[in-house]
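User: Predict the structure for this protein chain, please.
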Amino acid sequence: MLDIATIDKTGKAMYARLRELPTMPPLSVQFPDLTIDDAYNISREFLSHRTISGEKIVGKRIAVTSPAVEEMQGAQENMIVDVALDLLKEKEASGA
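Assistant: Here is the predicted structure, written as C-alpha coordinates:
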Protein backbone atom coordinates (compact mmCIF):
# COMPACT_ATOMS: atom_id res chain seq x y z
CA MET A 1 0.00 0.00 0.00
CA LEU A 2 1.05 3.56 -0.68
CA ASP A 3 1.93 5.83 2.20
CA ILE A 4 -0.21 8.89 3.03
CA ALA A 5 2.38 11.35 1.70
CA THR A 6 2.39 9.62 -1.71
CA ILE A 7 -1.42 9.56 -1.81
CA ASP A 8 -1.56 13.28 -0.91
CA LYS A 9 1.12 14.17 -3.48
CA THR A 10 -0.61 12.17 -6.22
CA GLY A 11 -4.05 13.62 -5.47
CA LYS A 12 -2.56 17.11 -5.62
CA ALA A 13 -0.76 16.32 -8.90
CA MET A 14 -3.99 15.01 -10.44
CA TYR A 15 -5.80 18.19 -9.42
CA ALA A 16 -3.02 20.36 -10.92
CA ARG A 17 -3.22 18.40 -14.17
CA LEU A 18 -6.99 18.88 -14.27
CA ARG A 19 -6.50 22.65 -14.07
CA GLU A 20 -3.57 22.77 -16.52
CA LEU A 21 -5.05 20.27 -19.00
CA PRO A 22 -1.99 18.10 -19.83
CA THR A 23 -2.47 14.51 -18.84
CA MET A 24 -0.34 12.47 -16.51
CA PRO A 25 0.74 8.84 -16.91
CA PRO A 26 -1.75 6.24 -15.66
CA LEU A 27 -1.47 5.54 -11.94
CA SER A 28 -0.86 1.88 -12.69
CA VAL A 29 2.27 2.91 -14.62
CA GLN A 30 3.46 5.30 -11.91
CA PHE A 31 2.77 2.80 -9.13
CA PRO A 32 2.91 -0.79 -10.41
CA ASP A 33 1.95 -2.13 -6.97
CA LEU A 34 -1.10 0.17 -6.70
CA THR A 35 -3.97 -1.47 -4.82
CA ILE A 36 -7.71 -0.83 -5.12
CA ASP A 37 -7.55 0.86 -1.71
CA ASP A 38 -4.73 3.12 -2.94
CA ALA A 39 -6.78 4.10 -5.99
CA TYR A 40 -9.82 4.94 -3.85
CA ASN A 41 -7.65 6.97 -1.44
CA ILE A 42 -6.10 8.91 -4.32
CA SER A 43 -9.57 9.49 -5.79
CA ARG A 44 -10.76 10.92 -2.47
CA GLU A 45 -7.67 13.13 -2.20
CA PHE A 46 -8.20 14.38 -5.77
CA LEU A 47 -11.86 15.09 -4.98
CA SER A 48 -10.91 17.00 -1.82
CA HIS A 49 -8.75 19.37 -3.87
CA ARG A 50 -11.67 20.00 -6.21
CA THR A 51 -14.14 20.71 -3.41
CA ILE A 52 -11.67 22.89 -1.48
CA SER A 53 -11.28 25.01 -4.63
CA GLY A 54 -15.02 25.67 -4.59
CA GLU A 55 -16.43 22.98 -6.85
CA LYS A 56 -19.67 21.37 -5.72
CA ILE A 57 -20.46 17.68 -5.80
CA VAL A 58 -23.69 17.43 -7.74
CA GLY A 59 -23.78 13.69 -8.30
CA LYS A 60 -21.98 10.40 -8.16
CA ARG A 61 -21.34 7.95 -10.91
CA ILE A 62 -21.24 4.25 -10.31
CA ALA A 63 -20.25 1.69 -12.89
CA VAL A 64 -21.87 -1.68 -12.41
CA THR A 65 -20.96 -4.52 -14.71
CA SER A 66 -21.92 -8.13 -14.95
CA PRO A 67 -19.45 -10.84 -13.93
CA ALA A 68 -19.01 -11.73 -17.62
CA VAL A 69 -18.08 -8.15 -18.54
CA GLU A 70 -15.77 -7.88 -15.51
CA GLU A 71 -13.97 -11.03 -16.61
CA MET A 72 -13.72 -9.81 -20.21
CA GLN A 73 -12.24 -6.48 -19.05
CA GLY A 74 -10.01 -8.04 -16.43
CA ALA A 75 -11.75 -6.14 -13.63
CA GLN A 76 -11.51 -7.59 -10.16
CA GLU A 77 -14.48 -5.75 -8.68
CA ASN A 78 -17.02 -3.09 -9.56
CA MET A 79 -15.48 0.34 -9.44
CA ILE A 80 -17.18 3.30 -7.81
CA VAL A 81 -15.94 6.67 -8.96
CA ASP A 82 -16.61 9.92 -7.11
CA VAL A 83 -17.48 12.66 -9.52
CA ALA A 84 -17.37 16.34 -8.75
CA LEU A 85 -19.02 18.48 -11.39
CA ASP A 86 -19.20 22.17 -10.93
CA LEU A 87 -22.19 22.73 -13.19
CA LEU A 88 -23.52 25.62 -11.14
CA LYS A 89 -20.26 27.57 -11.45
CA GLU A 90 -20.13 26.94 -15.22
CA LYS A 91 -23.76 27.97 -15.60
CA GLU A 92 -23.14 31.22 -13.70
CA ALA A 93 -19.98 31.94 -15.72
CA SER A 94 -21.78 31.45 -19.03
CA GLY A 95 -24.70 33.61 -17.94
CA ALA A 96 -27.17 30.80 -18.62
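Residues 4-94 form one domain.
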